[in-house]
Amino acid sequence: EPLAPGALALAGLSLEIVPLPGHAPAQMGVAYGEVLYCGDVVFPEETLARHPILFCADLDAWLETLAGLPVLPYARFVPGHGEPVQEIAPLAEANAARLREIRAQVWEVLSEPRESGAVLRVVAAHFDVTFAAPQFYLLALTTIHAALTSLQRAGAAAVEMVENRMVWRRL
Fold first, then answer.
1. What pLDDT digit, counting tens, does each position of 24-81 carry?
2. Does pTM top 0.85 for this prediction?
3. Under 8 Å CB-to-CB from 101, ≥6 apart: which residues?
4. Which 3-state string (H, E, C) describes the chain?
């Protein structure tokens, strides 16, 4: 049975399940007392430098989650990668800035209509990323689709079928 947001008693511990969508579908954090274990909703600067194209399922949802993190009532935050922090706002903003940069790069690439794979190649070159294996390419392609969808929702891009190819373009 899937976890639902709210209070949860587990092994004698009083926990709180906190929705943190965006990085992954239906991602949840777990709070215990004044500590939120927030997983991959925020990455430390070192991870942002090492993996500039973050895996992202829903860019808009992730940006919303990141904007709300600093106002959550917790004294410490434990990301999935990195050390616990008391101030989550700087990390949340760094992650949000990267997501906005990815979306902006995707929009720039759409100066001419392109398939999503072509968009990824240009964005990867911008970030100086070389994919060592197909799984890394596919993870990054999910992020490109999230950025394209974000642009589409905002009325800045559209998708159409051209000769059995799915082509994205600016509006």
1. 999 999 999 999 999 999 999 999 999 999 999 999 999 999 999 999 999 999 998 9
2. yes
3. none
4. CCCCCEEEEECCEEEEEEECCCCCCCCEEEEECCEEEEECCCCCHHHHHHCCCCCCCCHHHHHHHHHHHHHCCCCEEEECCCCCECCCHHHHHHHHHHHHHHHHHHHHHCCCCECHHHHHHHHHHHCCCCCCCHHHHHHHHHHHHHHHHHHHHCCCEEEEEECCEEEEEEC
